[in-house]
């Protein structure tokens, strides 16, 4: 297998281009026991844009994504150093209220994971836990979130139906609706379409493109076409570090780093 010079990287700094940054990491390292899965990643994510995280299996994409709203806290033996800056707060600081922070930085997982509740109940569950009890307000949030997730027209007459009776693609859009019902600023998605058929995938992609008007989206994907179709920026991960980060168009047409070029043109991974 070809080896690459890991010291040669190309990472754009968005603040130098006067872009508004919703979230950033500075020298982020993540260890699982002795295994250093993320080796000092510094990236800035532009507000109201979609950024794709791509790279071969095991290079640390999901680990990095999960760190951004502290999902790795739940894995024993994990150690994380470095900064994750969101609105002048270091998300990685011990004093951060993780429950509260996840209202601002929400997550959607690879496999649709609706609760065994009605469509309405899926969306209102966390809202109620956060103290929203007013029926009219809940109704409004349910409608808005389902509309934003492009699911409203299909389910509006049957909100009491079990979420588990929806198709896989509809379930995933319900999970997106559930995440955006909390009105996060940043939405993290870990291969949200990998378990879906092509039609459902394209619906999820359309949904994400529409959502970026209101949200900053960071998505892990193995699907190169998907990354190039939907994202504004792309970060290429390799062996726990980012080799190249730039506008998606550049990554897919004129990458500056050989490893990126080989990966996006299908030579490995
Ligand atoms: N829960 C965990 N416990 C221990 N090690 C883990 C855990 N999750 C991931 N790892 C290790 O961290 C490294 C990065 O894995 P990660 O899942 O982040 O990569 P990935 O790029 O998302 O891979 P894939 O594309 O296959 O999902 C790998 O060496 C993996 O074995």
Automatic annotation (TrEMBL):
ABC transporter domain ranges (all copies): 23-264
InterPro entries noted in UniProt: AAA+_ATPase, ABC_transporter-like_ATP-bd, ABC_transporter-like_CS, P-loop_NTPase, PstB-like
Keyword field: ATP-binding, Cell membrane, Membrane, Nucleotide-binding, Phosphate transport, Translocase, Transport
Spans through the membrane: none
A GO BP entry: phosphate ion transmembrane transport
Gene Ontology cellular component terms for the protein in this record: membrane
Leader sequence residues: none
One Pfam family linked to the record: ABC_tran
One function term, GO molecular function aspect: ATP hydrolysis activity
UniProt superkingdom: Bacteria
NCBIfam families: 3a0107s01c2 (TIGR00972)
Protein name as catalogued: Phosphate ABC transporter ATP-binding protein
Native source organism of the sequence: Vagococcus hydrophili
């Amino acid at each position: 297998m070809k080896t690459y010079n890991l010291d040669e990287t190309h990472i754009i700094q968005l603040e130098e281009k006067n872009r508004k940054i919703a979230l950033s990491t500075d020298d982020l390292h993540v260890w699982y026991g002795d295994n250093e899965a993320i080796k000092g990643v510094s990236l800035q994510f532009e507000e109201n844009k979609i950024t794709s995280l791509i790279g071969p299996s095991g290079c640390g994409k999901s680990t990095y994504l999960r760190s951004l709203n502290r999902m790795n806290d739940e894995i024993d033996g994990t150690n994380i150093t470095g900064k994750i800056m969101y609105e002048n707060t270091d998300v990685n600081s011990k004093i951060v209220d993780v429950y509260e922070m996840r209202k601002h930085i929400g997550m959607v997982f690879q496999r649709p994971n609706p609760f065994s509740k009605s469509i309405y109940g899926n969306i209102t569950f966390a809202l109620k836990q956060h103290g929203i009890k007013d029926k009219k307000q809940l109704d409004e949030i349910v409608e808005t979130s389902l509309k934003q997730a492009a699911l409203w027209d299909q389910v509006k007459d049957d909100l009491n139906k079990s979420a588990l009776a929806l198709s896989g693609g509809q379930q995933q859009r319900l999970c997106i609706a559930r995440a955006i019902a909390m009105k996060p600023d940043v939405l993290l998605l870990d291969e949200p379409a990998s378990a879906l058929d092509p039609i459902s995938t394209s619906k999820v992609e359309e949904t994400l493109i529409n959502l970026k008007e209101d949200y900053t989206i960071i998505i892990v994907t193995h699907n190169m076409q998907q990354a190039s179709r939907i994202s504004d920026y792309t970060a290429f991960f390799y062996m726990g570090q980012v080799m190249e980060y730039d506008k998606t168009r550049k990554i897919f047409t004129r990458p500056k780093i050989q490893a990126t070029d080989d990966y996006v043109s299908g030579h490995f991974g």
